[in-house]
């Protein structure tokens, strides 16, 4: 038996490597004292970092790995030369049941390719998906796929719904998360055949562990209309980045507007407590971590350029996702669903 | 010869009908005194409205139409029963060269279907597109397709680039607008075959009236990286609505943050000049109007729920787009491009 909530860390991943990874893990440990870590990387460098965080060191062990996947390596290269790298071995630790979850701030394409190769898609899953946490007016929702694939057929979209619901159950502790299918309109006639068929299946299938709410539109994501938003990866990736860009753009408008006159500057200075709250609310480090779902094990991708606080959010996410039984439960849900649509197709 | 810049108005369209349409037109007329209008609608109702705006009345004529397309009519219904409606006749006025541009705040699906049927796609165009103005940090850019179609092949995407460039030339008065192709990454290997092929064609083809800048990602739209952003309609529609939703969400965050303490409230009150500028900057009425491109005539869709100020923006857009020669120039550009890719395909 492995200890509960053990996280395998790619200690060399990301733009800043071990300094951010180790510091980030130490922040997350203060929030979740039950965490344990296995750090994969250059032993000398990582152990030197760990010395700065004795409490983290006491709950960590280092596994030396001789190589590192470059941030600009192509996925195919990374697969060929990956063995022995900190990223590869961190994922392999999940496969070998030495850890519940792997977290890496390294090369996204390489991580997805490796995770798929090492952990393998679940028996029922045609395509794994990348799920993002998305801040909403009330709290957060999960959006998937945000770029693991381009395009998705009806079955794959429906699978994403179940995968997202499993993640929502782990993160938000809701037994029946609400799920919406992203479309260009909410009427039944909107969308292509894949979206329409997925909508029909999710509506018809009884016994699914979710409340299906039908189609939603892009402006409803941030309103928190549903816990899980399902979309194929091309549009999902574009939506995510567009929202990030819009937030940055409005931040810039706000700054310019406050710097216009001495009165607005003074007012903004007095309201700085409010602006601090706003900044925290909009801080992209607060929700960091794409979760790779649909494999026989969980891999989480942190933004490569994030700092320790951002990396800690990805580790926090790993902690929540490191629930034993999550994948078994999802497998059973997928079985129920595929059985149902198989019957329907046969009718 | 028709008078320069004559606009056909669907006076009955939108949630508020003639009151908003007529008032909106009067606002736009103060900005563009060269405008003339043909208003299609219930003669009694429209002429009663017009009496409130004598300057507008002096530059308008009313054409009575006996019916109105309902906001929730299906496009197929609208086509069957459309003749004689204010929307149909406004579009037909463009076809019959009684007006340069038609503007309607009515049912989007009906407007697109009617415009396509009445104005017909340009000889070289497989698919018309809906283009939106998108506010950026510096000014505005054009994004298309935002929902006229779902999916687009390489040729259609490339055509969108030329159509968007023609619109940018009319609106921004730039001879060689910059164009980017929206994708899930900027590397050449990203995206599906359609996006990759369109990228290759736009790169290779010399003599195009635009500066092609390659792939861009969602967060670059609002940064104003390019004048024209090309994307297939499903992802484009979702991106547009997601950006609108994000802006609303942040506005809400900001309000909540300012209302937190008496000090932040006081500061916000002092900075109200700045907040007013911000509100103006983020006012969705400032840029209102989807332009239906690729037909033998221009049709513009205003938001159905907008007020007079918002409708005036759509009329302003119509004024800019009502340039004689725009469609002829676009037709020539499309010819050049298709000749080039035809040669390439034959090689």
CATH top level label of the largest domain in chain A: Alpha Beta
The sequence of SSEs of chain A as H and E is EHEHHEHHEHEEHEHEEHHHEEHH
Could you please say which CATH topology of the largest domain in chain A applies here? Isopropylmalate Dehydrogenase
CATH architecture of the largest domain in chain A: 3-Layer(aba) Sandwich
**Assembly type of the shown chains?**
homodimer
What number of structural domains do the residues of chain A give? Answer: 2
The CA-CA distance between the termini of chain A, in Å, is 45 Å
Structural class based on helices, strands and sheet pairing of chain A: alpha/beta
Task: Describe the largest sheet of chain A.
Answer: 11 strands, mixed
Beta strand count of chain A: 11
Our estimate of the beta-strand percent of chain A is 15-25%
Count of helices of chain A? 13
Strand order of the largest sheet of chain A: 3-2-1-4-11-10-5-6-9-7-8
Rg estimate of chain A, integer Å? 21 Å
| Unreliable runs of chain A | none
On the 0 to 100 scale, the average pLDDT of chain A is 92
CATH-wise, what's the superfamily of the largest domain in chain A?
A: Isopropylmalate Dehydrogenase
Query: Greatest interface and its residue counts?
Result: A-B, 63 and 63 residues
């Amino acid at each position: 038996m492995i200890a509960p909530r053990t996280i395998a860390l790619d200690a060399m991943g990301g733009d800043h490597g071990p300094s951010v990874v180790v510091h980030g893990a130490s922040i997350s440990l203060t929030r979740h004292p039950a965490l344990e870590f296995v750090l994969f990387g250059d032993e000398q460098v990582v152990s030197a970092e760990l010395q700065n965080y004795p409490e983290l060191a006491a709950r960590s062990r280092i596994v030396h790995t001789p190589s590192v996947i470059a941030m600009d390596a192509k996925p195919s290269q990374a697969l060929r030369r990956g063995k022995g790298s900190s990223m590869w071995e961190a994922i392999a630790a999940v496969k070998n049941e030495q850890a519940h979850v792997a977290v890496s701030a390294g090369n996204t394409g390489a991580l997805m390719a490796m995770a798929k190769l090492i952990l393998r898609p679940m028996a029922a899953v045609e395509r794994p998906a990348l799920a993002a946490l998305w801040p909403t007016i009330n709290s957060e929702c999960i959006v998937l796929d945000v770029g693991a694939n381009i395009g998705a057929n009806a079955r794959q979209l429906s699978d994403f719904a179940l995968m997202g619901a499993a993640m929502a159950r782990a993160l938000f502790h809701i037994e029946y998360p609400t799920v919406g299918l992203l479309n260009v309109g909410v009427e039944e006639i909107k969308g292509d055949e894949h979206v329409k068929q997925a909508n029909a299946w999710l509506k018809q299938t009884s016994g699914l562990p979710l409340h299906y709410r039908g189609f939603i539109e892009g402006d409803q994501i941030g309103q928190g209309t549903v816990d899980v938003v399902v979309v194929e990866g091309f549009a999902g990736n574009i939506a995510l980045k567009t929202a990030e860009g819009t937030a940055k753009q409005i931040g810039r408008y706000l700054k310019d507007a406050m710097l216009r006159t001495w009165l607005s500057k003074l007012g903004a200075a007095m309201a700085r407590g409010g602006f601090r709250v706003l900044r925290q609310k909009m801080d992209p480090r607060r929700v960091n971590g794409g979760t790779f779902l649909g494999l026989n094990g969980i891999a989480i991708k942190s933004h490569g350029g994030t700092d320790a606080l951002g990396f800690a959010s990805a580790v926090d996410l790993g902690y929540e996702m490191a629930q034993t039984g999550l994948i078994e439960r999802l497998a059973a849900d997928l079985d129920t669903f595929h059985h149902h649509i198989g019957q329907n197709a046969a009718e």
